[in-house]
Write a structure and sequence with these properties.
Layout: E1 11-14, H1 21-51, H2 58-84, E2 91-93, H3 94-127, H4 132-135, H5 138-164, E3 173-174, H6 181-185, H7 193-228, H8 230-258, H9 265-289, H10 292-304
Parallel strand pairs: 1-3
Antiparallel strand pairs: 1-2
Helix pairs in contact: 1-2, 1-9, 2-3, 2-9, 3-5, 3-7, 3-8, 7-8, 8-9
Amino acid sequence: MDKGNQSFISEFVLLGLCHSWIMQVLLLLIFLMLYITIIFGNIVIVILIITDLHLHSPMYFLLANLSVVDLLLSSITTPKMITDFLRDIKTISFGGCMCQILLVHLAGKSEIVLLVMMAYDRYVAICKPLHFSTIMSLQKCIGLVVATWTIGFLYAISQMVVIVQLPFCGPREIDSFFCDIPLVIKLACMDSYTLGILMNNDTGVIAMTSFILLLISYTYILLTVWQSSKIGASKALSTCSAHITVVVLFFGPSIFIYVWPLSITWVDKFLAVFYSVLTPLLNPSVYTLRNKEIKNVMKRFRTTT
């Protein structure tokens, strides 16, 4: 970066979720409990899948990796948001802000790719059961997970390269609890309107396209099974409904943030909270509460302890 394009700002000011001291204390307690639940719930899922032989299958291998992604996604912004509730002036360094952007998009895009991989796993298991062990071998599952993180990292780096070169010399207040691309671009000392639209559309198109493809794939799976066996369709619906629920919960907020931004501050903040806090909490809950095998493993674990 040349000297004419260097940032003159060493830190940004985060305006947070609200300004009332009582409300901030209440939110601190709520989000602290939610974060502890997220950490505990996702770690339990990972441990159960690793230790129980009944869960050593491609679907649960991918589910364990989804829990790891959720742990990362929630840990990028939530701990700082919790500690910021105790501060009058909430600041984040320029480097810290860039790291948040990098890691949020790394985790976000990795989760998108991972959800696509999980849909592919269900497609092969339900529509091509005789070839499942060959198509979804352990080596291929590991390759899919490596590809997931690689794609997420390359995408996050490509976004980061653009953001870090912008000149920041004027306003430094971010009306949110963490750094995100649409908010940071607005602070650049240049006409960033076109760049903001391009980067938002870039992220939004990926999210929207993946969302539509996932819904089409699950619809195709259910229709295929329904035509062959209604009993099988009932079982497939039970399996796929959990996946579809997670897909809707994850993609819904991101689509409104990047594809159809509402430009309403409190709505944007709610969607950001839902995306970074509630989704990592709901993912393990949805899979655990709707999955008989995991519930059976948890019962066996409780009886042995």
